Amino acid sequence: SFVALAKNVQSLPSEQRLKQLFAEVCQLNDWDAICVSETWRPAKEEQFENDDGHLFVFSGDDTGHSGVGIILHKRWAHSLEVFRPVNQRVCYVDIKAEGFKMRLVAVYMPHAFYDDMEVDGIYEILSSIKRQAHGVESTFVVMGDWNAVVGRS
């Protein structure tokens, strides 16, 4: 079995906050991947391993708002085939190990103060990513912060 978790980290702009996340991850048991949202990381793309060997990938933007990422447990870190930082709200990884293929997508949906077009745009991106994953016969998993409200009155 593959255990995927989601966490809204509510800002990781500093090294101190990133170290706090590392410490939290090290205390968890029985996980394979963690989707993180609201990272507020200013780089469009980041990829690194922490001291324990867990792989961290982040997608953000130069405004330092929003942001998503995926943390792969060290047992999966070397199975990474692709990391795609789509934008500050969507990123994905493709992993492959012993005939097993999976596309993990991290999403941070726009909240209620955004218009429906913004929300629909994220769904369009997710649909495209899903079509591509099925084209290569991968298991498709979407995880994240689904705080959207559509059809405000």
Question: Can you walk through the features of this model?
Answer:
A 5-stranded mixed beta sheet has the order 1-2-5-4-3. 24% of the residues lie in helices and 36% in strands. It is built from 3 helices and 9 strands. By secondary structure, the protein is α+β, with helices and mostly antiparallel strands. The radius of gyration is 15 Å and the shape is globular. Strand 7 (90-97) and strand 8 (100-108) form a beta hairpin.
- Helix-strand string: EHEEEEHEEEHE
Overall shape: it is: globular
Q: Kindly state the number of beta strands.
A: 9
Oligomeric state of this protein? single chain
> What value does the average pLDDT take?
89
The count of helical stretches stands at 3
Helix content: 10-25%
Sheet of most strands: 5 strands, mixed
Unreliable stretches: none
Distance between the termini: 42 Å
What radius of gyration results from the CA coordinates?
15 Å
- For the largest beta sheet, what order do the strands appear in spatially? 1-2-5-4-3
How much beta, percentage-wise?
35-45%
Q: Structural class, from secondary structure content?
A: alpha+beta
